[in-house]
Design goal:
Elements (H helix, E strand, L loop, with lengths): L1 E5 L10 E5 L7 H11 L5 E8 L2 H6 L9 H8 L6 E6 L2 H4 L3 H10 L2 E7 L12 H5 L3 E5 L3 E2 L2 E2 L2 H9 L3 H8 L4 E7 L4 H5 L4 E4 L9 E9 L2 E10 L11 E6 L10 E11 L7 H18 L7
Parallel strand pairs: 1-4, 2-3, 2-5, 3-4, 5-6
Antiparallel strand pairs: 7-8, 9-10, 9-14, 10-13, 11-12, 11-14, 12-13
């Protein structure tokens, strides 16, 4: 799989392509169906086009939270046998392309066939339609996928994560939700409580609902059982911004500055405000018992 990441006018290709285009945030089952349709054709090379940064980050001028970041998507794309992944710089110039200019770009990189959803729009302000594309390309429309009679979308996956429903999110993603982040210094309260936690810089990742979770952590190629807290630390050192903190079981290493991959398996309680340090410690001991019990379950990665 060849990855081409550049400004749109620097992207080159001279082989006929079957292409699908989108943000592919989360690469959920609907996105996966588009890619499977792309690779089902044998008369062309197979390609995906996505954007960096996410258009919402650029257009709204704020840190838009995503289910997957650039490297996550590349890793997921690599499992499908694609020939090319085009990562287009989403900037002012690209966002203002007219219908004619966008079509010219696709023709220049030898697109023969487009695999898209029925609601696909393109060009400046999304004025381009499927009919505009049909004038120049073979267009294969993939119908919407439904879950509980609702159209599958990235927003729908986020709704389940916000509700703490990890199982529904897992079904729609076809994998457990995970976040990669660097371990940064916090207030070191966990050490004082006997539960040293790794504070995670989760960057632009979308956080599930506040609460306490059973997670698994990948560190330097090895998996560890852990419990994670998402929230504002209402008992000690309240934080306006939500934090992601992970207590790794049977682990005693200095990992500041290291990157962890945190996979979410089960949310087992809400974040609570306790009367003081003693009550908090007692609850953390109970939480650890729950997590150790969950480690014995055959939950597959």
């Amino acid at each position: 799989m060849k990855i081409i990441s550049a400004n749109y006018n620097l992207i080159e290709n001279d082989e006929p392509l079957t292409l699908t285009i989108g943000n592919f945030d989360g690469l959920h089952l609907g996105h996966q169906e588009l890619i499977k349709r792309v690779i089902s054709y044998t008369d062309t090379r197979h390609a995906v086009m996505t954007f960096d940064p996410h258009p919402s980050t650029f257009l709204r001028k704020h840190a838009f939270k995503t289910l997957t970041q650039k490297n996550d998507k590349i890793e997921l794309f690599s499992s499908y046998g694609l020939d090319y992944v085009f990562i287009v710089d989403f900037n002012m110039e690209f966002s203002h392309l007219s219908v004619e200019e966008f079509v010219a770009f696709l023709r220049r990189i030898k697109v023969k066939r487009l695999v898209i959803g029925r609601d696909a729009r393109f060009a400046y302000r999304g004025v381009g339609t499927i009919n505009d594309l049909r004038k120049w390309f073979i267009v294969d429309i993939v119908e919407d996928m439904l879950y509980n009679n609702t159209r599958l979308s990235t927003t729908y996956v986020k709704d389940f994560l916000l509700a703490g429903d990890l199982e529904s999110a897992r079904k729609l993603l076809n994998r457990h939700y995970h976040i990669k982040g660097q371990v940064v210094h916090g207030n070191h309260v966990g050490h004082k409580l006997g539960f040293p936690t790794a504070n995670i810089d989760y960057d632009h990742y979308f956080l599930p609902e506040s609460g306490v979770y059973y997670v698994r952590v990948l560190y330097k190629g090895k998996w560890y059982h852990a419990m994670a807290n998402i929230g504002n630390n209402p008992t000690l050192n309240f934080s306006l911004e939500k934090r992601l903190e992970v207590y790794i079981l049977d682990f005693n290493k200095d990992i500041y500055g290291e990157t962890l991959d945190i996979v979410f398996f089960e949310r087992f309680r809400d974040e609570l405000k306790f009367k003081g340090k003693k009550e908090l410690i007692e609850q953390l001991k109970k939480d650890e018992i729950v997590v150790r019990r969950l480690t014995n379950l055959k939950i597959m990665l």
